[in-house]
Amino acid sequence: MTEELPVDDRVKKAWDELHAVEAAVQRAEEELHRATVTAVSADRKVELTVGAQGELTAIGFPGNGHRTMTGAELSASVLDAARRARSEMARQVIETFDPLAGMLSGGPGAEGLAVDWNKIFGGSLEGFDDPGESAAMSRLRDEIDED
What we know:
Layout: H1 7-33, E1 36-40, E2 47-51, E3 56-60, H2 71-104, H3 117-121, H4 135-146
Antiparallel strand pairs: 1-2, 2-3
């Protein structure tokens, strides 16, 4: 039978863990504050960059192929590139913060701390695997499916 730690030690341990999580969250926020993602539309005619909150920060037209496009075609390409960039940024945010949510999930009262990434990002995650699933687990699942 394992002996429980005295209350003072458990409280100190909980505070230490909380401070470690707070420091990790601050580092992650600083990292993401500087993060950008650039994506290219499927037709390769529009290149678009977004920041960590999905805000557009740059748009470009590689090869000037946009000059021969109709307004509707150009609009569709811009929206496609924006969707791709925002989806990738959402993935980057999840990969940055999901481990931090996991750091808190082991403690008492942590049942309500699960993060619903689909609720946060909505349709931005379409076309991606389960956002709570790590990239390594996703690759492993793909390899198993192929066998």
